[in-house]
Write a structure and sequence with these properties.
The chain is mainly beta. The protein contains 4 helices and 33 strands. It starts with a helix and ends in a 9-residue tail after the last strand.
Length: about 475
């Protein structure tokens, strides 16, 4: 069979064309987008995990890691870069280049856990024509938030600079950002009061100002924030009482975190009527009086922290279906026993009842579930008996604190599980030898008991073993032959 000259020429032409045809997906992205992204990359001084190594000039930036583009015009719409908190090599070091302003179709910036991104507040972002979502979290952005913060024609949906080093006050111009659903400025170094203008942000579902140095009263403006689901104001220097208008959030509020401030007065009764509450943190304040009986209505509460206040008996018998964490420590309670509604909880992780006036035998406590416990703190009570039965039924316990009780058992019978890192049995009547398994702990205190024998080789100081009958070996005196 022979091939005609015309057929041969057609085959050769087809092969030549296919060899020189560029794939469609190799098309370059828009020059402005490429220049903006490469300008950002040039300001990054360290990228140990190679997060940006595939950002190569001349290639399609819509295929670069962390980049998404609009389908209709292939313009960059989002930039998303995240580090892994447990992997230090995944962090970036450098600054946020203003060249990002060239990305005229950019809708969202999501920089999370990059840790070492520094420089001043990137005010240029607020002049970009299409930007609606800014998340620059857990880095080293510093300096003041400019007064023109809210003077933007953009209708921002979410702004988060959580976990940076911002200073100064929250600008009053924040009141102009009326389309915001999330405002997160927590874990910075902000000072001054909470701006009253936040009352105008009626679409807010998430407000976080925690972990700053804010002072003054909590404004009574929540009647206008009826969409609020999460309110985080913990770890500031706020004073005064819980404002009455928070009661209007009963249908929606799931998380109310006011711990570690200087709030005072009585816990308002209306908190017990907020049946959507998942988390309530009022810890480390100056609340007085009793916990309202209306707390019986908090059937959906999973995390309750009332520790370190001046609260007194009686504590209400709650009707929770299951609680994940409970901390009532360091008040003036006299509970007598661990509450039944705690004992019957099927999913509890953390139980902290230090100095709660508990007088019971620990052997008599039969929690329905011990498998999920992470932390148990029963310090400073009058609990007797043995901890062996409880601790030897837990596989995931990380910490157990029971100092200053009347426990009496042979420590040698304790099973030290792999997860256990913190153990404090000081000032009890524990006897026997110290098990070798304690070498894997991070913190240990068995001082002022009746222990005897050679101490296993550990890194703990002498104070961890002081006041026992006849312990010997480093860091105490040598054992006799």
């Amino acid at each position: 069979m022979t091939i005609s000259n015309s057929t041969a020429l057609f085959i050769l032409f087809t092969i030549f064309t296919l060899l020189h045809l560029k794939p469609i997906n190799a098309a370059k992205c828009h020059p402005d987008d490429e220049a903006g992204l490469l300008g950002f990359k040039s300001a990054i001084k360290s990228d140990p995990s190679g997060m940006l190594t595939k950002w190569i000039p001349g290639t399609d930036c819509c295929t670069w890691p962390g980049i998404n583009c609009l389908t209709e015009n292939k313009r960059v719409s989002t930039v998303s870069l995240g580090g892994q908190p447990d992997q230090p090599k995944s962090f970036l070091s450098g600054t946020i280049s203003s060249s990002l302003s060239k990305l005229q179709f950019l809708d969202g910036i999501y920089f999370t856990n990059l840790r070492n991104i520094s420089g001043p507040f990137p005010g240029f972002l607020f002049n970009m024509p299409n930007l609606q979502f800014i998340y620059i979290e857990n880095s080293q952005i510093s300096g003041r938030i400019p007064d023109s913060f809210g003077n933007s024609t953009r209708k921002f949906g979410a702004i988060s600079f959580q976990g940076n080093r911002l200073t100064g006050t929250v600008p009053s111009s924040v009141s102009l950002l009326t389309e915001l659903t999330q405002l997160k400025l927590g874990d910075n170094l902000l000072s001054g009061g909470i701006p009253d203008g936040i009352r105008k942000l009626t679409k807010l579902s998430y407000l976080s100002l925690q972990g700053n140095q804010l002072t003054g009263n909590i404004p009574d403006f929540f009647a206008s924030l009826t969409n609020l689901r999460i309110l985080e104001l913990s770890r500031n220097k706020l004073s005064g009482t819980i404002p009455p208008s928070i009661a209007t959030l009963a249908p929606t509020l799931g998380y109310l975190e006011l711990g570690h401030n200087s709030l005072s007065g009585k816990i308002p009764d209306f908190l017990g009527k907020m049946r959507a509450l998942d988390t309530l943190d009022l810890s480390s304040n100056r609340f007085t009086g009793t916990v309202p009986q209306s707390f019986k209505n908090l059937t959906k509460i999973f995390n309750l922290d009332l520790s370190n206040n001046l609260l007194v008996d009686p504590f209400p018998e709650m009707n929770v279906k299951g609680i994940e964490s409970l901390d009532l420590s360091d008040n003036n309670f006299h509970l007598g026993t661990i509450p039944k509604w705690v004992t019957s909880s099927p999913i509890i992780y953390s139980l902290k009842l230090a100095k709660c006036g508990i007088r019971m035998k620990l052997d008599d406590w039969k929690p329905s579930e011990t498998y999920f416990y992470d932390y148990i703190d029963l310090s400073g009570n009058e609990i007797s008996g043995s901890a062996i039965g409880l601790l030897n039924r837990t596989d995931y316990l990380v910490g157990f604190w029971a100092s200053g009780n009347k426990l009496k058992f042979d420590l040698g019978g304790l099973r030290i599980v792999e997860k256990l890192k913190y153990l404090d049995l000081s000032r009890n009547s524990v006897f026997g030898k110290i098990p070798k398994g304690v070498v894997g702990l991070e913190k240990l205190n068995v001082s002022y008991n009746h222990l005897c024998g050679q101490i296993p080789k550990t890194k703990f100081p002498a104070s961890a073993f002081a006041g026992n009958d006849c312990l010997c070996g480093p860091p105490l005196q040598p054992c006799k032959a």
